[in-house]
Predict the structure.
Amino acid sequence: MNRWRPDATRLFCFVLLCGFYGAMDHSSSTFAADAKESLQLTIRKKTETEPGSGRFHTLKHPAAWEPLQTAIIVCDMWDLHHCLNATRRGAEMGPRMNRVLKTARDRGVTIIHAPSSCMDFYKDHPARLNATSIPLSQNLPEEIGAWCHQIPSEEQGEYPIDQSDGGEDDDPAEHAEWAQKLQDMGRDPRKPWKRQTELLEIRNEDFISDSGEEIWSILERRRIDNVILLGVHTNMCVLGRPFGLRQMAKNGKNVVLMRDMTDTMYNPARAPYVSHFTGTDLIIDHIEKYVCPTITSDQFLGDKPFRFENDHRPHLVIISAEREYETERTLPQFALQHLGQDFRVSFVFGNANERNDLPGIDVLNDANLVLVSVRRRVLPTGQLQLIQQFVSAGKPVIGIRTASHAFCLRNEDPPEGLFAWPEFDHDIFGGSYTNHHGKGPRVNLEIAETAGDHSILDGIDTSAFNSAGSLYKVSPLSGSTVPLLVGSIPDKSPEPVAWINKRPNGGRTFYTSLGHPEDFEQPEFNKFLRNAVYWAAELPVPH
């Protein structure tokens, strides 16, 4: 880290800046001669499946950004925070973030450090003088110096978390001890920051500013259109600061969030009552829907995206592509209410304009388990292969309702260029779906004699729920299955409605023909499906 002495160097630094200020300008031939190769990025954005649906495809596309036209703004990576857990998470991110900054800087990217309310500490630092020496731009956007609490596009959605308590997630006793420690250090326990964390190196050629006008002027002076925001906290400072995502987006900069180099002020004791890390995911989803795209740090460092050491959540991908049972509505609600503590959940929805297309299905490459709710779709070879590769890897598969006939058509061949998987039901679920009984009678449920004390049935009272959906004809099941629930209607033979199957490669599999919209209105069904997801992920079933 560069060392500097305020009293000894202030005048020298100012003279130095004046001496080769022109070399800092991207328009100079000397600087331009050092231009590096383009940054090859993968931009992720959420696009509504159709207007007004409230459902989104998660899509990625490549982008090539010129380093000299790109800046990274480091938002509020303070040395200390009033929330102890936030301080810990910031320290955990710091070393990797510094690697990102070094790599980007070496490639020609402008680095702007923005530790708000800490400018006095840096008043003599060359990087601070770099910022103050640039004349204010003649085209400052209106209110660029102010916090921005919302932009018009956000009015289309509902803000996903309750942060009205400030978002602290500390244990109360530990928080009180931390506040006392800050006070003993001579820090204000509510605003203890004095500088940026020392984990991030500030080079003399960088910039330091917390002013929207100054930072905008730096970007304009350097002809920078591409802006990457990282730092903390996404739902507050990163979004709202005068140099934050909202201001950059609404004023025309090509801005992205580095989504794995950020954190959120969210308390799981507040709605929607999910884990801290899921709270961050929900904010990132909101940003990708309504504010700007995102990228990840591995695109600079060439390894894997960063993950907090206490984030142990398996990644569940839910594929919903059917027009019969509204699972595009019921499954997201189910996941938020019942899986948000222990799972990271992504969604893949069918293309509203092209039946046999699952945009964003490549998310399976990063998934630990999948839940399938698909009906009679045949797919391009690349999409079907992604699903087959996932299954072949022995990863858990959960199916509900129409998943038994997910990837095949009824008595017809697929159109040219599309492919079916008619063996999916038999080979993966161990079923033999042929049809269903007529609509009308509710299906009564009983625990199968073979179920024993299986953990999926923990706490399940079959007398407390039944099903409004027609009873599927699925018999006979493969010998590798273990039926859990049996359904019956008057004057018809009972049928298994839920079972597990052990695939030849050892992959855990659960299937249920339940999943009618009214099923999700029954607490007992939600508990049953939740238990199945936990079992598939090899996690203890909640009590």
User: Anything to note?
Assistant: The domain at 315-536 is CATH 3.40.50.880 (Rossmann fold). The mean pLDDT is 93. The CA atoms of residues 314 and 343 lie 5 Å apart. DSSP finds 14 helices and 20 strands in the chain.
